[in-house]
Amino acid sequence: MVERRTTAEAAVGWIGVARASAATAALFLGGLLLPIGGPLLMALTPQPGLRLSQGGPGRVLTFVVALAAAGVGLAGGAGPAVFYLVSFGLLTITLPALLRRDWSIAVTIGLATAGVAVAILGVALCVSTPTELWIAIRAGLEQVREEAVRVYAHAGLAPGMIHDLDDGSARVIDGVLRLAPALFLVSIAAVVLINVELLRRSQRVRGLVPVFGDLTRWECPPELVWILIASGYGSFVASGALEAVATNVLAVLLVVYFCQGLVIAQFYMRRWRSPFWVIGLVYLFIVVEWLLATGVTLLGVFDLWADFRRLNPRPVEED
Q1: Under 8 Å CB-to-CB from 211, ≥6 apart: which residues?
Q2: Any idea what DSSP says for residue 210?
Q3: DSSP label of 158
Q4: Rounded to whole angstroms, how far apart are CA atoms 95 and 107?
Q5: N or C: which end of the chain has fewer CB within 10 A?
Q6: How far is CA 167 from the centre of its chain?
């Protein structure tokens, strides 16, 4: 009876692995093929494996990633399969291991982001030189820019507007290339954060303790503000490679403090019991209005001194 039960449990386990592998490969390939919404769909690639890891041993993730990579390779070739392995496959395996350490969310997301970034860069540098990578990135962005300008020209816009659009898009590409390292890290961190948040929601549905508890009480390490000040100063007074490093560090830290500002906003919306539609409108305005987004970032920066959520106990004044 025990042997029969063990065989049945193993069969159910392998069925779960097969389903998770198929779903993983479908999400990844769908993200590659869909022109609209593809990146968001691809960001969900680790979810089937992460959900499966909650109810089984850690080694099942190795089988999920291996089978998913084989499926991606059969459908899309060796290139997409290698990219999956060093990005979403690596994240699928490492994220549960990091979560079991019970570290803070900042440390967990930072380590996962650094691991995936190093793996992607390592593979990219094995097949190409930094100069060739930079040329390929610029060529890809220029192709997208030229195609967009061509579409607007066929739409019947005035020649003057097309000229302004061409000049403006060229400056945007220069800015994107200047901030390419920061955008690369922030993109990976966003994928990690999305998957952690979805995992927290699935645990809450199952009645388990959410990962990291109440995130509305999260705050940046106080020492981080000195790096923010130094990188901001360096981006104005430095030149050459030092200016590029300072600018990218500043961009990453501004995103971090923007997240803290969002957490503060969420803290007060929860305290005031704001309805769902109000929360949605607030987030929409933050996304579309850059002045509001700047205010949210400043809210996160000055929280170190203002302590808007009153998280730190205040000293008792003596008479």
Answers
A1: 99, 105, 196, 199, 200, 203
A2: P
A3: -
A4: 12
A5: C
A6: 30
